[in-house]
Amino acid sequence: MAVEAGIPRAHVDLAVGALAPRLVGRGPASAHVALAAAGMVLLGGDRVHVDIDVGAGCLLEIEDIGGTVAYPSRGTPSTWTVEATLGANAVLLWRGLPFVVADDADVERRTAIVLERGARAVIRETLVLGRHGERGGRLVSESTVSDAEGPILAERLELHGCAPEPGVLGGCRVADTVVAVGFRPPTRPGDLVLAQPGALARHLGAHTHASPLDGVWSAWSDAAGGAGGDAAARAAEPAFSVGAP
Fold first, then answer.
1. What does the chain look like in DSSP terms, one character per residue?
2. Quick one: pLDDT band at residue 169, thresholds 50, 70, 90?
């Protein structure tokens, strides 16, 4: 998906694959996109790839519709890859819903974000090992953020519900994370402040509803130039077509 500033409305390009993006609203330099599965994902062997290009000075808000379940893989891993490029002074807000790894699932998840000068992003990612009554399968999650100066964030998590590791999830099954990059958000004790402008807040627990990070998401998306994740919706007019000039 891509958004570029335009008069009277931004130009938005969306393509349907394993996921089906839908344009909710847009303004001259903003777009609000709802993202849902086009079918049953993730099955063993599925390859989901999301490309995001936010043009200079634009705001893109992505809203997940329903979470994602990685189903038993039956020996064939699945992959989930997100690659995002943010132009100068662009803003990306993506509040992801839970990504659940069922028993016997095998998933490799990768997110790579490249920022140009003045670009900012706030991403929420909630990883859950197992559906109700399950321990959960294997998940490798890699996240990288970089700009012209070099790396800003590089993290790799290796999780398996049947082999919990101290110092990673331990006895918890939920890892809820909010990442802000490209600016200095307001932080709390315990948040990780990055060497370059940015921060990471994380909650480990047993249930998604117990996470205290809703307030962090709102505060950080406000600071990024949004408004609690709803900026694009308020700034943009309703839209019923895709890619119109």
1. -EEE--SSS-EEE---SSEEEEEEEEETTEEEEEEEESSS-PPTT-EEEEEEEE-TT-EEEEEESS-EEE---TT--EEEEEEEEE-TT-EEEEEPPPEEE-TT-EEEEEEEEEE-TT-EEEEEEEEEESSTT----EEEEEEEEEETTEEEEEEEEEEETTS--TTTTTT--EEEEEEEESS-----TTPEEPSSSEEEEEEEES-GGG--THHHHHHHHHHHTSSTT-HHHHHSEE--SSS--
2. confident
